[in-house]
Amino acid sequence: MTAKILRGRVLTFVAEPSGADDHASYRYLEDGAVVVEHGKIVSVGEWHEGLKQLVAPKAEVIDHRPGLLMAGFIDTHIHYPQMQVIGSYAKDLLEWLNIYTFVEEQRFADAGHAARIASLFCDELVRYGTTTAAVYCSVHPQSADAFFAEARKRDMRMIAGKIMMDRNAPDELLDTPQRGYDESKALLEKWDGVGRLHYAITPRFALTSTHEQMEMTQDLVRQFPDAYMQTHVNESLGEIAFAKELFPNLPDYVGIYEHYGLLGPRTLLGHCIHMNDREIDAMSETGSVAVFCPTSNLFIGSGLFDRERLMASNVRIGVATDVGGGTSYSMLRTLDEGYKVLQLRGQRMSPLESFFMMTLGNARALSLENTIGTLAPGADADIVVLDARALPHMTLKMEQVETLTEELFLLQTCGDDRVIAETYVAGEAAKARLS
């Protein structure tokens, strides 16, 4: 891989912003240079004409000015088998699952179909500037094989797992406790640590797993403590009521996962909307991650995430698109809707906080903050280049923009795939290959 020097305005976070004016939380270079070689960032600093000769004489200089260089975006909860479910009308979560999602996911028994969708899925992530995601496959092991093979081919840092579910779904989507265990273990041993891939043990949610399957999931988590564990919790009131019927002797929905030893610092719990105090305390004590999925929660009508309440209890938080319940692959669109959700809650989230969440914040949620989510020597060279003048109305607005935070808020409010000028994956220009 040829060394590269990416020139442009450089923004990277070093800490979580405390508000709109927390300049100590980030590093900004008006004319910066990111030196990349062998898929890693070698150095980050001010541009000067002698840099190429001093640092990397054979490097190619790519001038992205006046573009804004940031760490690639990170999505902490997304379903690749739901690409053709996005934009499907239903009254609530359970209806949406039964009418659309469970039907669509049956198609992933076909390895050829899974491979086609995995390729298109990775294309969309790159198009929207997302370089890492925590991904749900279908119940079929071939769906996970297809996804991992595609991500490996592109040298993407991805987290994924085969869904485990043995009840309350069509027969074609059910495994058994033993088969779910065996297939998950085989996939984990095959793919975890290959290139930049990580495995996530993935019981879909408590509604679709029996006590026996939850116990075998617990066995997997015990055997592979470094693997991720991802599932859903407290998304809708109907779901919560059903969970209570299925596990009547446990205190609450989070308590189900707690009972089976599934909480911990590598546990990603999608949604976390309707939370009681005991559940919040359990998540805080175990270091489990609450994943905020704003476009999905609004689209399905599930409820409004309470960020301030969780933060007050020191619960770790990630943010995610949750396609296909979510309505966009864009982390910019996701944080735009997140801003609106919190406005309705009477809570504020500044542009600095939004961009922190989709980069270093989500990297911290994945315990990968030394690897992704930052532009720093030794980090993966996963980089996005943003152009706040990509659309005519944004160009007009930029005539009045005077600060970095104003520019970030414009990108968040009006941006989509067109403001992503380039996406670098392991130092290679990936979006350019899509055109």
Care to describe what's here?
With 435 residues, the chain is α/β, with parallel strands linked by helices. The chain is built from 15 helices and 16 strands. The protein has helices at 51-55, 93-105, 111-127, 141-153, 177-191, 211-223, 237-246, 253-259, 277-286, 294-300, 307-312, 331-344, 351-365, 392-398, 404-414; strands at 4-13, 26-37, 40-46, 60-71, 73-79, 130-136, 158-161, 163-164, 197-203, 228-233, 267-271, 289-292, 316-319, 383-386, 420-425, 428-429. Strands 5, 6, 7, 8, 9, 10, 11, 12 and 13 form a 9-stranded parallel beta sheet that branches. It has a 7-stranded mixed beta sheet with strand order 3-2-1-4-14-15-16. Helix 4 (141-153) links the parallel strand 6 and strand 7. Helix 3 (111-127) packs across helix 4 and helix 13 packs across helix 15 (404-414). The protein is globular. The two termini are 21 Å apart. The mean pLDDT is 96.
Percent strand equals 15-25%
Estimate percent helicity. 25-40%
Task: Give the count of helical stretches.
Answer: 15
User: Spans with pLDDT under 50 lasting ≥5 residues?
Assistant: none
Distance between the termini: 21 Å
Largest sheet: 9 strands, parallel
Broad structural category: alpha/beta
Radius of gyration, CA atoms, in whole angstroms: 21 Å
Number of strands: 16
- What is the arithmetic mean of pLDDT? 96
The coarse silhouette is globular
Features:
single chain, 435 residues, alpha/beta, seven-stranded mixed sheet, 37% helix, 23% strand, globular
